[in-house]
UniProtKB/TrEMBL annotation:
Organism: Cellulomonas fengjieae
PANTHER family in the record: BETA-FRUCTOSIDASE (PTHR43101)
The Glycosyl hydrolase family 32 N-terminal domain, residue ranges: 19-241
Listed SMART domains: Glyco_32
Family to which the UniProt record says this protein belongs: Belongs to the glycosyl hydrolase 32 family.
EC number(s) from the headed UniProt entry: 3.2.1.26
Protein name: beta-fructofuranosidase
Classification lineage: Bacteria, Bacillati, Actinomycetota, Actinomycetes, Micrococcales
Keywords: Glycosidase, Hydrolase
Keyword Nucleus part of the UniProt annotation: no
Claim: Metal-binding is one of the keywords in the record: no
One Pfam family in the UniProt entry: Glyco_hydro_32N
Amino acid sequence: MLELPDSWVWDFWLADDGESYHLFFLYASRALGDPDARHHRASVGHAVSTDLTSWTRVADALVRGDSPAFDDLATWTGSVVRHPDGTWFMFYTGATMTLGGNVQTIGYATSADLTTWTKSPDNPVLRADPRWYELLEDGQWAEEAFRDPWVFADPDGDGWHMLVTARARTGPADSRGALGHAWSPDLRRWELRAPLTAPEDGFGHLEVAQVEDVDGTWVVVFSCLATSADTRTNGTSAGVWVARGAGPLGPFDIANAQPLTGSDLYSGRLVRRRDSARWLLLAFHNDAADGTFVGSISDPMAVSWAGTSLVVTP
């Protein structure tokens, strides 16, 4: 488990260099007092492990940029992939505060060793396009949601895909959550495309999405609390959800997504150790029994299929 005595820790993503697992995580000082204030003070920390359980903190990976910059409010959730030439790419969310509110866009940084990162001068490389995605000016949500890039190589070798937490331009406000989609031939140039999911599936947003082939079945794992879902889904105390898909780009059955964890866990990530084919889930500890925010990252939990349901197992 990763727990920092002086900071809250929440969303995270992982990379494996063949010898160590690298954990990149959002953190902010507990001196802020109010856990909700952490979002506007987030930096990207870095820790390493050989077993996904015991972590050693190392130098931070990223901090917010100087104004005016696309990330001059905070650096938020992302993912890491390795280019065939050996360069590591970290895609992440840049948050900036405009007169109208928080606007989120996507940028990236590169590294030769997963330790020293250089932000691209071309940032941001993606932003919400009103052809498909809701903007802040639409007045339906408290922010312009366009964040949490999850990047993966096309299984058939056709470049790279990115999933994005976004919102559609139509449908009830509490059910516009959409899985945004972009494509790239080389990780540097990106083409935004229509979302992979339709609105009115019951979720206000599909946060920190990840797509994987789990034992022969494609799934998308995402997070959403009851406070950000419509009446069809807000009767549950779920935090992490899973929906089945026909392939890595869907279609995904979001309307019939099933809870994978309670609201005590959030921002779930599926991962496998190098020496095992078994899938594991890591998540951050969200709310305690008394409702207070915890802010630490769990130990790995095994997941497996129970019939048609993916479940956390002992």
